[in-house]
């Protein structure tokens, strides 16, 4: 099933499979939306790493999901905050705490308490429903981790970061406890039953249900005396009794979680990735190298790669990667029986067939590469019987260093190899016909094949469907129905095909053919039901009065007034629709989260339909409800407290305005609680955004999101400054449009400035923002935007905050973000877009923040370091903050609090107090006591930025104190 939205504080991840529960083999530190079938839903997420994330769209959206609150997450473009009532000037002049006075002191600093209290609020539990939907887990979490967690040694190998002590991915978050609640018939929750028997201080990861819902499996690790964590051990818990125990009696069997970890083969047996018992100490780096480091391209291959980080550097790194990643698979039953499964190898995934008879194993092997990450290493896919007997090898791909950088380019050969969800043990896969190169014109471009797991001697793969665009996934139902998705990024075209997998004489037909950018035409995604085998297939619904069969289309309902989610009964044969549910459009934002009446095979009766919905408003945080037909009675099953009651009455409005070229733009305007523009006057304003690329003005003008969504706050959210009496313009659309044959970035600066001008003019027109006190900020590509705006639109903003950005595009010569041309193909574009090249034009104060261990492609820490030196070389007012141990997003409490302190200091000094201080200084001279009257205070809060920007900290604070 698909998700209708990306929650600010809640998201849903599948629990029946550890692969879909934990992104990158760890509990997510950031919430990831499981994508809808790519041809039914436009990609609206803002990607940190550009096209790589988009390419990973899978049919995992058909799985049931976990509800995860994320108030401890660093997010770029969401948040909310507030402050006390009162006049704007009076609140804006609240003094720093004594320990915040000087920026020259070393060490980590704390932001003002009104910000600190929001960030330190205890996190809500995550929720997980049992496969039979009769129980709910409350998974308990801690607040922000300490910096000591991030400071633990890690190995950066082949694009992954490994905690060698734990033998898992580094920097995993975790749960601290598990509570079980029965879901009563009336929708209420029974009393909590705690999982018992866990060691004190247990860190819980990779939790998953057995298919029958009777057991839980998860890993446990403990903190050790030296500050490190122990290796992971598998534990199992009986859901009825709540008692937990280690799966392995031997204390020497540990989980290797560098890639996969474990999976239920059946209700009583798990297949576990373990550290080989015969493994010795890690290889030692030689004191003297065996020779020079040599890379060669004497074959004149064309090899273009994005700017990947953490790559292998030498033979020692190769040995170390192989050492940590090599796994011995073990079959372990709940009654204690243990059996090795296959030879040791670097297994990256394991997937049992729906009938539990076979295991699909994927592994990687040498030769490794120094120019691409491990996802492009040689890969082998094999079929094994569940008892450990080898069946056959499906493919063994060579090293893939030369995948073209053009969007929609893929690896040659078989890919997307999976089990059919509607069959006991049938495989399907895709093979490219263009050599994987999107620039090659060929028809068909992709062919989908299917075959049984153990075919007869003369049984050849069967062609299921041919595609002229790039394959995007399949939603299975049965032999009469499956939906196939294809897309093409260059044109934004997306298609959905209806096929009959079991009938060769039924011709495929196009169901939907639309633009992925046209959110208004999105018909929704088919909801899925869970089969007895634990897979998910398209749900068929039957009306008792007419006997026809329908699908359930769950849609976001994008409209010019905002999203109004819906649920339609859809006749796939005639295309007719009947709306059976729709969100309240006046006050609330409601979404369909999951199908709850899905335990039985066959068609579902509309009169027995039961769904899980979420409900929220601007000021009411998300709660979950069970909605049952035919009465459509809603029973509330959660009652989460407001995460930051001090901001409960913040003001939120989705606003629309127009760019000078006619493009309609939107933004979310937040104002502090109790603020009245007629009484309090204009406020200092923080604009926080992230540009996006479009192929048409019409698509760029469409409204995305809902005005009634709850304003969620992450630890580094710009909405925290509502608590400091700032107005916040969150996510103003910055569309970069390239219509027809034009590339969007060819007019990047022009469109960027025009979008920013329109946003600034709108908040000034509304009287909520002081034109001399508007700051701009962003993270990653938003930081790139910020630097460019200060260079090319200095009249709009008084200062900027740029976090974890890239500023010199010549350092990312083989593409960046959604730019697929190389530096040599679009030299002028790369140069003109780079704020590094315009460092001499930046005259307004800019704060640069960067994680020292940034692992995001393109945004290596050197980008901020070199940009700062360029700014400093031209006398710009700038500050660079490098966060030890932090990556692209920031995780440790010390780091986050310091980022907030730095940001608040910058905004107070260069925005809230960005006055023409000549009047202030004269007022100070006229008042021997060092105070000023109320008229002088008002003058001091209303001017420009330059003079104050040039004061050192001591003079600044001296003047500020005199104004209080």
Task: Describe the fold and architecture.
The chain is of the alpha+beta class and 964 residues long. It is built from 17 helices and 50 strands. The strands form eleven sheets. An eight-stranded mixed beta sheet has the order 41-42-45-43-47-48-49-50, sandwiched between helices. Strands 14-15-16-17-18-19-20 form a seven-stranded antiparallel beta sheet, covered by helices on one side. A six-stranded antiparallel beta sheet has the order 1-2-3-4-8-9, with no helix packed on it. A hairpin with a 6-residue loop joins strand 34 and strand 35. The longest helix has 20 residues, at 893-912. The protein starts with 9 loop residues before the first strand and ends with a helix.
Structural class: alpha+beta
Contiguous runs where pLDDT drops below 50 for at least 5 residues: 1-101, 916-964
Strand-residue proportion = 25-35%
Distance between the termini: 56 Å
Average pLDDT: 85
Treating each run of at least 4 consecutive H or I residues as one helix, how many helices?
A: 17
User: What share of residues is helical?
Assistant: 10-25%
Radius of gyration: 28 Å
Sheet of most strands: 8 strands, mixed
Number of strands: 50
User: Globular, elongated, flat, extended or rod-shaped: what is the shape?
Assistant: globular
Q: List the strand order in the largest sheet.
A: 41-42-45-43-47-48-49-50
Protein name: Glutamyl endopeptidase, chloroplastic isoform X2
């Amino acid at each position: 099933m698909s998700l209708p939205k990306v929650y600010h504080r809640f998201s849903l991840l599948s629990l029946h499979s550890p692969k879909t529960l934990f992104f990158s083999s760890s509990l997510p530190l950031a919430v990831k939306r499981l994508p809808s079938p790519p041809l039914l839903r436009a990609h609206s997420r803002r990607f940190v790493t550009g096209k790589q994330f988009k390419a990973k769209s899978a049919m995992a959206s058909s799985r049931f999901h976990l509800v995860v609150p994320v108030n401890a997450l660093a997010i770029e473009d969401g948040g909310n905050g507030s402050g006390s009532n009162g006049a704007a000037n009076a609140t804006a002049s609240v003094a720093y705490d004594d320990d915040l006075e000087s920026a020259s002191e070393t060490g980590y600093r704390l932001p003002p308490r009104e910000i600190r209290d929001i960030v330190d609020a205890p996190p809500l539990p995550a929720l997980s429903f049992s496969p039979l939907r009769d129980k709910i887990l409350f998974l308990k979490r801690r607040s922000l981790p300490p910096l000591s967690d991030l400071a633990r040694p890690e190995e950066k190998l082949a694009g992954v970061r490994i905690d060698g002590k734990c033998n898992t991915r580094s920097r995993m978050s975790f749960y601290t406890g598990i509570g079980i609640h029965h879901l009563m018939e009336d929708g209420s929750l029974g009393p909590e039953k705690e999982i018992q028997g866990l060691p004190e201080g247990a860190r819980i990861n990779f939790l998953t249900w057995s298919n029958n819902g009777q057991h839980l499996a998860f890993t446990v690790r403990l903190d050790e005396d030296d500050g490190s964590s122990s290796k992971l051990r598998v534990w199992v818990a009986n859901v009825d009794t709540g008692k937990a125990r280690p799966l392995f009696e031997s204390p020497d069997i540990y989980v290797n979680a560098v890639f996969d970890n474990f999976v239920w083969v059946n209700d009583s047996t798990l297949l576990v990735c373990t550290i080989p018992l015969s493994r010795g100490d890690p290889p030692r780096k030689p004191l003297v190298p065996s020779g020079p480091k040599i890379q060669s391209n004497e074959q004149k291959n064309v090899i273009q790669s994005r700017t990947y980080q953490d790559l292998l550097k030498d033979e020692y790194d190769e040995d170390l990667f192989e050492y940590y990643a090599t796994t011995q698979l073990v079959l372990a039953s709940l009654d204690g029986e243990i059996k090795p499964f296959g030879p040791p190898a670097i297994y990256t995934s394991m997937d049992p067939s729906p009938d539990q008879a076979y295991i699909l194993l994927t592994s990687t092997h040498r030769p490794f590469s120094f120019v691409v990450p491990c996802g492009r290493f040689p890969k082998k896919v094999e079929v094994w019987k569940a008892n450990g007997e080898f069946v056959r090898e499906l493919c063994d791909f060579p090293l893939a260093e030369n995948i073209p950088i053009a969007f929609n380019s893929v690896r040659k050969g078989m890919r997307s190899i999976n089990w059919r969800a509607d069959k006991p043990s049938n495989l399907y896969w895709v093979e490219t016909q263009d050599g994987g190169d999107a620039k090659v014109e060929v028809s068909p471009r992709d062919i989908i094949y299917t075959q049984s797991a153990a075919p007869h001697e003369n049984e050849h793969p069967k062609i299921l469907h041919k595609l002229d665009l790039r394959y995007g996934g399949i939603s299975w139902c049965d032999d009469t129905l499956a939906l196939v998705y294809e897309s093409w990024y260059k044109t934004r075209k997306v298609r959905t095909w209806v096929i009959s997998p079991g009938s060769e004489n039924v011709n495929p037909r196009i169901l939907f053919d639309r633009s992925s950018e046209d959110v208004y035409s999105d018909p929704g995604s088919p909801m899925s039901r869970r089969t007895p085998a634990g897979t998910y297939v398209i749900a068929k619904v039957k009306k008792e009065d007419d006997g026809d069969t329908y699908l359930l289309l769950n849609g976001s309902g994008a409209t010019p007034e905002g999203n109004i989610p819906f649920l339609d009964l859809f006749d796939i044969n005639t295309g007719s629709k009947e709306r059976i549910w729709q969100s309240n459009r006046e006050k609330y934002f409601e979404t369909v989260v999951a199908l709850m009446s899905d335990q039985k095979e066959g068609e579902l009766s509309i009169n027995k339909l039961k769904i899980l919905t979420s409900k929220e408003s601007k000021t009411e945080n998300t709660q979950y409800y069970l909605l049952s037909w035919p009465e459509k009675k809603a029973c509330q099953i959660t009652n989460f407290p407001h995460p930051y009651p001090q901001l409960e009455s913040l003001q939120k409005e989705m606003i629309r305005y127009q760019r000078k070229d006619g493009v309609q733009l939107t933004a979310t305007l937040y104002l502090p609680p109790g603020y009245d523009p007629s009484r309090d006057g204009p406020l200092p304003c923080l604009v926080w955004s992230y540009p996006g690329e479009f192929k048409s003005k019409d698509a760029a003008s469409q409204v995305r999101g809902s005005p009634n969504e709850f304003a969620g706050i992450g630890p580094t959210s710009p909405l925290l400054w509502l608590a400091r009496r700032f107005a916040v313009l969150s996510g103003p659309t910055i569309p970069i449009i390239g219509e027809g044959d034009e590339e969007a970035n060819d007019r990047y600066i022009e469109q960027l400035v025009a979008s920013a001008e329109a946003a600034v003019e709108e908040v000034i027109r509304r009287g909520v923002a002081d034109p001399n006190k508007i700051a701009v900020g962003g993270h990653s590509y938003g930081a790139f935007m910020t630097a460019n705006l200060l260079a090319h639109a200095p009249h709009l903003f008084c200062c900027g905050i740029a976090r974890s950005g890239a500023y010199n595009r010549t350092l990312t010569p083989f593409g960046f973000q959604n730019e697929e041309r190389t530096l040599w193909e679009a030299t002028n574009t790369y140069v003109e877009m780079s704020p590094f090249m315009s460092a001499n034009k930046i005259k307004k104060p800019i704060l640069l923040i960067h994680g020292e261990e940034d692992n995001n492609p393109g945004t290596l820490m050197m980008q901020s370091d070199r940009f700062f030196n360029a700014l400093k070389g031209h006398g710009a007012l700038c500050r660079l903050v490098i966060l030890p141990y932090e990556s692209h997003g920031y995780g440790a409490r010390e780091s986050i609090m310091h980022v907030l302190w730095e940001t608040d200091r910058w905004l107070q000094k260069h925005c809230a107090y960005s006055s023409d201080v000549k009047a202030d200084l004269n007022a100070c001279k006229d008042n021997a006591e060092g105070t000023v009257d109320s008229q002088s205070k008002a003058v001091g809060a209303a001017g420009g930025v330059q003079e104050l920007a040039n004061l050192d900290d001591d003079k600044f604070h001296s003047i500020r104190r005199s104004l209080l």
